[in-house]
# Entry
Amino acid sequence: MQQGEFELIKDLRSRFRPKNRKILGIGDDCAVVEGDWLLTTDALTDGIHFQSKVISFEDLGYKSIAVNISDVAAMGGYPVYALVTIGIPEKMKDSDVRHLADGIEAARDEFAFEVIGGDTVKSKTLFLSVTVVGRPFVKPLLRSVAKDRDFIYVTGTLGDSRVGLDVLLHRSQERPLDQDYFLKRHFRPSPRVHFMEYVSRHITIHACMDVSDGLLGDLSHIADESGVGFFIETDELPLSRKDFGLSNDSELDYLVQCALNGGEDYELLFTSPDVLDLSKIEKKTGVKVSRIGRILAEDRLVQYLGEKRIASELLESYRHF
Ligand code: ADP
Ligand code: MG
# Structure
């Protein structure tokens, strides 16, 4: 594949710009069609998005649904229906497929939607392709409405999933004390539906999306779609720092890198014109929220460990291709 994923999608987007002006097509976390139905689809392939040797089938089933539900939450909504396609290699056991279904069922029970169909096909590699249909709690929240001087907020902690992946693949010098916490964050993302239920009714949100490719890349999507810039401070990023044994500079640098570019956090990134009461929101939803910066008219800047940097210098989003 010569073109990157983003270039390809840009091409598809101009080719398939909806003729019906009332619908929102390619470019956001979900499409929005008449009646405000939210539609999204995401596929996971063995060897690219997961390694079947290290993830349990139950976690894989759960995660395949969770990543889609996260896109629905990112649009201000909750899931209603799901369609699940499974590509099954010859050697896979029936009991493995049933464990996949156990994970899907656990997600179904947790988020109260219906699995209404899908497809089961033979495949050389294991893959799952899930489509979720949802509804907004109040109205669809888009990436394209960030305004100059908005505050930028993010839920939970960032970078944990990447730390978990590095632990799994023995890729980093830095080792957290509580490895299980990071592995769980990697295998079982928590789509922020319940959080969204509260905030969409109680606070003013301008732009919103989920952090799936890494904070900097995803924030750049909000900036591109809204025609604005941003300023964020790495000192303000919510890192799971306490879960590390040491607290030296290289460790902090590693955690900041994971937060900026790690991917697969499935936290929500949103902008608001208001200074929010963060402890009240946390009390009401059980989810921590951090203010990490502001929307600017043009520039894209990061106060990176005390030094002012241009975002593009630090941007190294994980690419699937
Ligand atoms: P997310 O990370 O939120 O799931 P993606 O980066 O996967 O979003 O996709 C960005 C946008 O491009 C979405 O609106 C998605 O529906 C659209 N898209 C991606 N691949 C295709 C494709 N093959 N055909 C049409 N639209 C696509
Ligand atoms: Mg998304």
Summary: The pocket of magnesium ion (ligand 2) is lined by residues 29, 71, 74, 209-210, 212 (CB under 6 Å). The two ends are 7 Å apart (CA to CA).
